Every structure is written in structure tokens, then in C-alpha cells.
């Protein structure tokens, strides 16, 4: 089934390309599935389980995004603190504009 691509217009070519890519993906999935079955059969024939060979599949937990200890405190309102990460709070910027230094605001 040879297709003369020189006789196809732009839309027909795009349609052919998309169909070919879909078919290529289908073939790849089929091949991967067959290979997976072969690997499982080989492992089973040797008397092992998939987990024996490749581990349990449980990955280590990622560290959570816990809170960071505050690094700066607003002298006018001690309840307001900032860790030094992210956007500067307005009180911090205002204090710097008023002539204070970062070390003056440090906890």
C-alpha cells in the first residue's frame, strides 16, 4: 500500500502524519506489553517475584514543605515575622526605607 505523498495536499498530509503517529504509538504500546509479559515470565520461571528483582516500588518520601523559622521581626508589631524567603512583607520594606538595616530587624 504505497501512498503517493506528492499528490496529497497540506491537509491530507497532516491527516496522514497524525494517523501514522497514532499507529506508531499503538505499535510501541503493544511491543512494550509483550516485553513486559516476557520479563514477568522469565522472572517467574527462575522462581522470583518482580519485587524480589526490582524492589517494592515504594519510593522514599519527599521532604514536606514545612515552615521555616522566622529570621526577622517587626519592631512595631512583634507578632509580624518573616523568614527571609519569598516576597518581602510591606513592614520590612517600609523599615528599610525609613533607614533601618536588615540586621536591625533580625531576631
Automatic annotation (TrEMBL):
This protein's record includes keyword Transcription regulation: no
One MF annotation (Gene Ontology) recorded for this entry: bent DNA binding
GO cellular component, one term: protein-DNA complex
Gene3D superfamilies for the chain: Histone-like protein H-NS, C-terminal domain (4.10.430.10)
Keyword Secreted: no
Entry's localization field: Cytoplasm, Nucleoid
UniProt keyword terms in alphabetical order: Cytoplasm, DNA-binding
Ranges for domain DNA-binding protein H-NS-like C-terminal: 59-107
Major subcellular site: cytoplasm
Renumbered residue ranges of the record's region Disordered: 63-89
Similarity remark: Belongs to the histone-like protein H-NS family.
Protein name: H-NS histone family protein
Organism: Dyella psychrodurans
Amino acid at each position: 500500500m504505497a501512498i503517493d505523498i506528492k499528490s496529497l495536499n497540506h491537509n491530507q498530509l497532516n491527516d496522514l502524519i497524525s494517523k501514522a503517529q497514532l499507529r506508531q504509538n499503538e505499535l510501541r504500546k503493544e511491543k512494550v506489553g509483550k516485553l513486559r509479559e516476557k520479563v514477568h515470565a522469565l522472572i517467574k520461571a527462575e522462581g522470583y517475584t518482580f519485587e524480589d528483582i526490582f524492589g517494592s516500588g515504594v519510593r522514599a518520601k519527599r521532604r514536606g514543605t514545612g515552615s521555616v523559622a522566622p529570621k526577622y521581626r517587626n519592631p512595631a508589631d512583634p507578632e509580624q515575622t518573616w523568614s527571609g524567603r519569598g516576597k518581602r512583607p510591606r513592614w520590612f520594606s517600609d523599615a528599610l526605607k525609613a533607614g533601618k538595616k536588615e540586621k536591625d530587624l533580625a531576631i
